[in-house]
Design brief:
Organism: Candidatus Magasanikbacteria bacterium RIFOXYC2_FULL_40_16
Order of helices and strands: HHHHEHEEHEHEHHHHHHHH
Radius of gyration: 23 Å
Helix content: 40-55%
Protein name: Mutator family transposase
Distance between the termini: 32 Å
Number of domains: 3
Largest sheet: 5 strands, mixed
Strand order of the largest sheet: 3-2-1-4-5
Length: 336
């Protein structure tokens, strides 16, 4: 097989096909190269692609200011870990030494990805760095939709101010409640009552209006008084502590906030389909550059299957929906 340097136009095509889910082995056969050569081509060219900060500066997108945010685990080989004393780590710790978090947000109004980066984890330092960069590109953050990690809104408010509205994903919260359901056969009756309690909470936090939520809250109070259960008190405590974040979409109806983080979850599903055949990255830079390329291409790729209230997005890319003129621009020819 040929291993020499390849023309940049062909190289960009290889990168494009890889980002669009072609496996390394398929690309090697298709272009008569070794898998190592294909990987080197991808690493070399993705290292030149513009970062989110470059795109913001060049195109100046007009975003909605409502960000649906989360982090996704990606497998990245840590070369330094080999030099450490392996006997001091548990099996779980060894696994997590080779995992990092890709931090990303979806602009709810346009579907664009204003900023994305690779971090060690969803810790305060990495989150603050993410939101500082988001602020530096002039993202007009008004509201944040995220899962139950309390560090996410804390970091965002640290950077953007305490006036920031935080909406906790109701779907994630309900899943957290369901994990508390008893599994023993002898607790079947209690489980049934707790399932009904969760349903009552769901009707409150996913109501169509504040008035409907208040009516459903009265029903929840009456029902919760009909039985005793340790799990019931835990669930109600979780609800009371998070009710402001769970109902931000009702308390701020003018913003038309989503109450779930489905936008970012759907994005991550697409990402995982792409990363499945890659396995893991063998260097942090490779991971960061490849994920940057994947996000960049997605920003310039038109939507095709949006439905209901988002039909107007079809045939337009996320960055076009953010008001940018991108006619005849190939994102893989842009440079940082």
């Amino acid at each position: 097989m040929a291993t020499g340097r390849i023309d940049n136009n062909i190289g960009r095509q290889i990168v494009r096909e890889s980002l669009e889910r072609a496996s390394i082995r398929i690309l090697a056969r298709r272009y008569n190269k070794t898998t190592k050569t294909i990987m080197m081509i991808i690493h070399r060219l993705t290292a030149c692609l513009p970062l989110s900060t470059d795109i913001a500066k060049k195109f100046q997108p007009l975003w909605s200011g409502i960000l649906v945010f989360d982090g996704k685990v990606v497998r990245v080989y840590d070369q330094l870990f080999k030099k450490m004393d392996q006997s001091k780590f548990t099996d779980d710790e060894k696994k997590w030494k080779h995992k990092m978090r890709w931090l990303c947000g979806v602009d709810f109004g346009t579907g664009d990805l204003p900023h994305y980066d690779l971090g060690e984890s969803e810790n305060m330092i990495d989150l603050v760095m993410y939101f500082k960069t988001l602020k530096s590109i002039k993202y007009p953050l008004v509201a944040l939709v995220c899962d139950g990690n309390p560090l996410i809104p804390k970091a965002a408010k640290f950077v953007f101010g305490k006036q920031l509205i935080a909406q906790r994903c109701t779907r994630h919260f309900l899943e957290d409640l369901r994990r508390l359901l008893p599994t023993e056969e002898t607790q079947k009756e209690e489980r049934t009552k707790l399932e009904q309690l969760i349903l009552c909470i769901k009707f409150v936090i996913e109501a169509d209006s504040l008035e409907s939520a208040q009516n459903n809250l009265e029903i929840l109070k009456k029902y919760s008084a009909t039985f005793k259960s340790p799990a019931k008190h835990i669930m109600l405590g979780m609800f009371k502590r998070s009710k402001i974040e769970l109902t931000a979409h009702l308390l701020n109806p003018e913003l038309k906030l989503p109450h779930t983080s489905n936008d970012i979850e759907n994005l991550f599903k697409q990402l995982m389909l792409r990363l499945k055949s890659l396995g893991r990255f063998y260097h942090q830079d490779y991971a960061r550059n490849y994920l940057n390329g994947w996000a960049l291409l997605r920003r310039f790729t038109p939507f095709t299957d949006c439905r209901n209230g988002r039909k107007h997005r079809n045939k337009k890319s996320p960055i076009e929906l953010a008001g940018c003129e991108i006619k005849n621009i190939d994102p893989l020819k842009l440079e940082r």
